[in-house]
């Protein structure tokens, strides 16, 4: 229960944050899972260079139920606080 409350508090703080993050010009591959191999039982870095980068820390990634958006929390680099990042498929 404490973990759920803490997660909701973090998500609320991120959404209400006044920091605005620009849209990066990262090419997004077509296909499910951002062009990555569907997950298996062995952990692997997800979407290197797109989601997982050297400059930032990315955590708590999740796909929308319709697989048309991927949400994750990004921090570090040029941003002073954590922010919610969204990758969306549009016109597909």
Strand content: 25-35%
> What spatial order of strands do you see in the largest sheet?
1-2-3
- Largest sheet properties: 3 strands, antiparallel
Average pLDDT rating = 73
- Please trace the helix and strand order, writing H or E for each element: HEEE
Structure summary, number of beta strands:
3
Counted by DSSP, the helix tally is: 1
The rounded Rg comes to 14 Å
**Class inferred from helices and paired strands:** alpha+beta
Query: What's the N-to-C terminus distance?
Result: 38 Å
Layout of secondary structure:
Layout: H1 2-16, E1 57-63, E2 69-76, E3 79-88
Antiparallel strand pairs: 1-2, 2-3
Description of the structure:
This protein has one domain (2-88). Helices cover 16% and strands 27% of the residues. The chain is built from 1 helix and 3 strands, in the order H-E-E-E. The chain has a 3-stranded antiparallel β-sheet, covered by helices on one side. Strand 1 and strand 2 (69-76) form a beta hairpin. The protein is globular, with a radius of gyration of 14 Å. It starts with a helix and ends with a strand.
């Amino acid at each position: 229960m404490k973990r759920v409350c803490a997660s909701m508090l973090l998500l609320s703080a991120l959404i209400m944050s006044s920091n605005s993050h620009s849209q990066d010009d990262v090419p997004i591959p077509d296909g499910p899972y951002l062009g990555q191999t569907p997950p298996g039982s062995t952990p692997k870095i997800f979407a290197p260079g797109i989601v997982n980068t050297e400059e930032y820390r990315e955590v708590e990634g999740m796909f929308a139920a319709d697989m048309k958006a991927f949400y994750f929390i990004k921090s570090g680099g040029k941003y002073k606080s954590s922010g919610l990042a969204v990758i969306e498929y549009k016109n597909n």
